[in-house]
Amino acid sequence: PVPLRELAARDGRDVGTAVPGPALKNYAGYREELAREFSTLTPENAMKWDAIEPERGTLNWTDADAAVDFARRHDMAVRGHTLIWHNQIPRWLTDGGFSREQLDGIVREHVRRTVGRYRGRVFEWDVLNELTADDGSGYRRSLWSDTLGPDFPARVLRWAREADPDAKLYWNEIAADGISAKSDRFYAFAKALKAAGAPLDGVGFQAHFNLDGVPKGFEENLRRFSDLGLDVRVTELDVALQLPADDTARARQADIYAQVVRACRRVDRCKGITVWGFTDRFSWIPETQPGFGDATLLDRELEPKPAYRAFAAALQAP
Ligand SMILES: OC[C@H]1CNC[C@@H](O)[C@@H]1O[C@@H]1O[C@H](CO)[C@@H](O[C@@H]2O[C@H](CO)[C@@H](O[C@@H]3O[C@H](CO)[C@@H](O)[C@H](O)[C@H]3O)[C@H](O)[C@H]2O)[C@H](O)[C@H]1O
């Protein structure tokens, strides 16, 4: 079959996947499939703050460099993930008791150093990740919102722009895929940043779904953000199944993947789709959602599932 990356390219879009460090190192078949099917990759954990700077001043770029090098050797682009998130923050930072001024300096240095290191080699950054409160009331409570003041997103975006003027800068969000109080708040934040002239280039919708299906207003939501002059992306797509999954569940899963592809293709500024892992062998779902899994396009032996065929068919449909 024609690789997904080629089908997406016909539309001027890209298709990507999250890549866990160990998979890239230890599984030959995985690397071949990755390079064959995908035009972008997102390091699943290697570019997060706790991986890069586990101890203050101790830097570890090993897995991040390996992912960037792999991409360069296989004509793939890299989405950097993620600079500011409430999870996977190193302990020295959460327990540091830093003042606003001190934390500002620390964040600025982290952004300058990380974006600077991959200047010209990472084409997009999830600068901001999951900052919106789930109830849509405002910012999610975090070290950042508690310490850095209400305008910290604009400041962090500006530091990222300084470090690499060519990289596209994104705010990536979870559970804001449809029209909801949360996505309304996210929309208001994005609109305010654009109005303030902050360097926000795009927004990412993670799309961690299950058989409840694609949330109501998904396409409309993509379109309203793009109408703000923003690129939009699906950044972490998977469809978790209750285990053991049967053919009916896999057929429903396939339909959901296809719906997402069709919605993205109908929105001009939807730049592409990234799946959060492409084989059931490497997926965050089983560890974090006991009883669920089989969420991706290929099975554990890298064999295509109905989801893969539906994804490909939706990419090439007229
Ligand atoms: O939570 C799912 C998505 C939601 N959106 C943002 C996105 O970044 C997030 O991705 C997931 O983010 C999760 C953390 O919140 C990641 O899970 C972490 O993944 C890390 C790297 O594998 C794990 O850390 C390893 O843990 C091992 C045993 O516990 C240790 O031996 C390793 O040293 C340590 O690196 C953490 O326990 C585990 O919690 C998942 O792989 C990753 O898929």
TrEMBL record:
Keyword Lyase attributed: no
GO terms, biological process: xylan catabolic process
Sections of the chain in a coiled coil: none
Reaction catalysed by this enzyme: Endohydrolysis of (1->4)-beta-D-xylosidic linkages in xylans
Top-rank EC class of the record's enzyme: hydrolase
Entry's EC annotation: 3.2.1.8
Active-site residues, Swiss-Prot/TrEMBL: E236
Span of domain GH10: 18-314
Keywords: Carbohydrate metabolism, Glycosidase, Hydrolase, Membrane, Polysaccharide degradation, Signal, Transmembrane, Transmembrane helix, Xylan degradation
Highest taxon of source: Bacteria
Molecular functions (GO terms): endo-1,4-beta-xylanase activity
Family from the record: Belongs to the glycosyl hydrolase 10 (cellulase F) family.
Name this protein carries in UniProt: Beta-xylanase
Organism the protein comes from: Paraconexibacter algicola
From-to range in the entire protein, with total length: 86 to 403 of 405
